[in-house]
């Protein structure tokens, strides 16, 4: 109902094929991390796999977290903002330097920014999905609070995160890092605001396009994190 053009919903991919592909992908991911011999990478994969399964799987009463808005937010925070950045950071630091500290300025910055993006994208996703969610009894935040309120809540979460990022940049003792962090995040915040103001919240296609734009900003942020020192 929400995305009829996707391969599984459109019938271009059978459930059997989808199950095989998913299973092989999981096995390959765990195997690569095991062969590399990196505990942080391996357990990062395990954590991401467990969180994503809890979010989607409809096999036990306590799973399929996507039915509940705050469980959904918890999934995104665990997977995108904690497990992935921390596990990958520990893996690279152990590989290059032989050890790592969890208390580092870039890592804390990354967790903070990715937390803001995780919350905003997961709540924003529910806006164009209202019709299908309502049909299947999923009481998303958009259904409970309304599309417009959730839309602007998500936008303001990111705008505050961009301002906070600029303030963090201002405290840097390295000149190039200071100005690069401030300018880039204020520019992204302005770009987001201009785009957000132009969207008709009642237009499902426009909202879906805005949702994809948020993901573009999300992945741009992975690059901007490198500027923080």
From TrEMBL:
KW Transferase (keyword) present: yes
Leader sequence residues: none
Question: What topology does it adopt in the membrane?
Answer: Multi-pass membrane protein
Domain of life of the native organism = Eukaryota
Name the residues that span the membrane. 12-36, 42-63, 70-90, 102-124, 150-170, 206-228
Record has Ribosomal protein as a keyword: no
> Where in or outside the cell is it found?
Plastid, Chloroplast membrane
Report the Gene3D superfamilies cross-referenced here.
UbiA prenyltransferase (1.20.120.1780)
Q: GO: which molecular function terms?
A: transferase activity, transferring alkyl or aryl (other than methyl) groups
Instruction: Name the UniProt key words of this record, in alphabetical order.
Output: Membrane, Transferase, Transmembrane, Transmembrane helix
For this record, an example GO cellular component is: chloroplast membrane
| InterPro entries per record | UbiA_prenyltransferase, UbiA_sf
- Which family is this protein grouped under? Belongs to the UbiA prenyltransferase family.
The protein depicted here goes by the name: Homogentisate phytyltransferase
Source species of the chain: Ambrosia artemisiifolia
């Amino acid at each position: 109902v929400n995305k009829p053009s996707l391969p599984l919903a459109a019938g271009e991919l059978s459930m059997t094929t989808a199950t095989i592909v998913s299973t092989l992908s999981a096995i390959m991911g765990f195997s690569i991390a095991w062969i590399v011999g990196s505990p942080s990478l391996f357990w990062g994969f395990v954590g991401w796999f467990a969180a994503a399964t809890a979010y989607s799987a409809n096999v036990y009463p306590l799973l399929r977290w996507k039915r509940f808005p705050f469980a959904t937010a918890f999934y995104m925070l665990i997977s995108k903002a904690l497990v992935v950045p921390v596990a990958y950071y520990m893996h690279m630091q152990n590989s290059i330097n032989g050890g790592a500290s969890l208390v580092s300025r870039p890592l804390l910055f990354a967790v903070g920014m990715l937390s803001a993006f995780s919350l905003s994208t997961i709540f924003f996703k529910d806006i164009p999905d209202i019709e299908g969610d309502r049909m299947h009894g999923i009481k998303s935040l958009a259904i409970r609070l309304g599309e417009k309120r959730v839309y602007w809540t998500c936008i303001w979460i990111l705008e505050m995160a961009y301002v906070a990022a600029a303030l963090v940049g201002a405290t840097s003792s390295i000149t190039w890092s200071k100005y690069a962090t401030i300018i880039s995040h204020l520019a992204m915040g302005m770009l987001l605001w201009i785009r957000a103001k132009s969207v008709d919240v009642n237009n499902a296609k426009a909202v879906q396009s805005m949702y994809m734009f948020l993901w573009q900003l999300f992945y741009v942020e992975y690059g901007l994190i490198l500027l923080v020192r």
